[in-house]
Design goal:
about 120 residues; mainly beta; Metal Binding Protein, Guanine Nucleotide Exchange Factor, Chain A; 3-stranded antiparallel beta sheet; about 40% strand; globular
């Protein structure tokens, strides 16, 4: 199953032709800032899996536990795209908010990313 998504303005797009390694909801301060909510839903893939087009601006941040992670975001819309933790150099976290099916009509079922891991 393939996945695709991007930021809300369309300047950054990605496709992934791999299955997620894992998924989780993070409640750390940093992820709450990115999502403007109580958590951020993240799908983890092998780092080489996503093909990303468009400019992704990066910033280095510290997690609540002091680990360095490199957050990628769209410089136009500010939407968080990915997370590359130094601690796991072979993995990349893709923010579930980048799934375009979450932005169209009100959800009537799981999104493509959610369905893939049977949430």
């Amino acid at each position: 199953m393939g996945f695709s998504g991007g930021c809300s303005c369309g300047a950054v797009r990605f496709t992934i032709d791999a299955e997620p390694v894992r998924a989780f909801q993070c409640q750390c301060r940093d992820c709450r800032k990115d999502s403007c909510g109580g958590h951020s839903s993240v799908f983890v893939f092998p780092r080489a899996a996503p093909e990303i087009s468009g400019e992704v601006r990066k910033t280095a941040r510290l997690s609540d536990r002091g680990a360095i992670k490199h957050k990628g975001f769209c410089p136009t819309s500010g939407v968080s795209i990915n997370n590359k933790p130094d601690k796991f150099p072979d993995l990349i976290g893709i923010d579930a908010e980048c799934d375009p099916s979450r932005r169209s009509a009100p959800a009537t079922g799981p999104t493509s990313l959610q369905a893939a891991i049977k949430i």
